[in-house]
Predict the 3D structure of the following.
Amino acid sequence: MPSVTCSDGPVAVTGASGYIGSHTVAALLRRGYTVHACVTNDADADKTAHLLALASAGGPGKLRIFAADLFKAGSYDGAFTGCAAVLHVGSPLGYAGRYNPRQVYDGAVLGTGNLLDSARQAGTVRRFVYTSSFAAIGHPAPSGHVFTEEDWATDNREGDSRWSEESIDKDGGVAYALAKVATEKQVNRAAEKDGRFDAVSICPCVVLGPLLSRAQEGVGSWQYALARMLEGKPCPRGWQALWNIVDVRDVAEAHVLAAESGVVKPGSRYQLTASGRSGELNIWELQAHLQNLFPDIEVGGPPDEMAEFLKRRGGKTHDGPRAYCTKARQDLGLVTHAIEDTLRATGESMIHLGLLKPAWKA
Ligand SMILES: NC(=O)c1ccc[n+]([C@@H]2O[C@H](COP(=O)([O-])OP(=O)(O)OC[C@H]3O[C@@H](n4cnc5c(N)ncnc54)[C@H](OP(=O)(O)O)[C@@H]3O)[C@@H](O)[C@H]2O)c1
């Protein structure tokens, strides 16, 4: 399988302004790549200033910014010209209600179709790395089940009335998971048919770590939920189960390693999840970690609904999802951050960017 190096040509990153995309740009620049960073609006300084700052920090790589939109056919033709790899990170997401479930689905499936046309047209692309999600892996399973790359979100869905094409217009969670499954398969089919490029999918779970711009707050995201806890408020999401945490810098690095690797097989997928049990935290463990890392802040915990939830579930939260990024560490040589580093960097960056008002102890 052909690997990519910085002497093979530029590498394009979609969603370059975003949380994972920006770190992916940073990782490429550090290695000396010329990066074609694709943003929806190149005139919006909130989406580009941090990228320009990364490029002017004196590293070896070079940056070019392109405006492109997944919903517009041919939009990426210019950005992909001459590129050796495409790292397709961007996708319309439901944060702050920016996109509805149908747009989330179509933006992934139809949008990636448009993007693949541009990659084929370029004719120089040798590797296509698609940012999928653990949502394309996780499926109904008993507490404690350990997920691997062999699992698909479509498994064990018999009798799950929510899990259908009809839900796409009304259920954001189903629309997102179905979109990620369909898009992974679409990308693999396109690569196989074309023959000039290989496809690899990256499937992150709960992504945390330093934010590089205020525009990465992602209202409703995991980092947004963590920020509320540092404001002393109840955790607004994910308190019913484990937070299976991966560092955004590790997710970014995995994208670059997947482009460069000479050993990954076509159609491979890599779950970017906890490195071990220390990265799988229930809400009380998460709260305790944050309290330890931010001793001057009164950290929030589970919401009031937790008491009723525990009564219904025999006093326990869900022991899942359990999943480890062992394959990424073994195949790609990924070295991961410690959970304390990830949590600290998330909180500190959000305080620094003015995205939360800490609940300082009196
Ligand atoms: N964060 C997580 O916990 C997590 C977990 C699993 C998977 N993922 C996946 O990781 C990827 C990046 O997510 P993120 O967390 O970095 O979110 P993010 O910060 O909101 O980034 C999303 C990016 O998608 C771009 N985008 C949105 N609509 C677009 C459109 N119509 N055309 C082109 N680009 C568009 C945005 O570009 P503009 O800002 O320029 O509009 C933005 O840069 C997504 O595919 C997401 O599904 C994230």
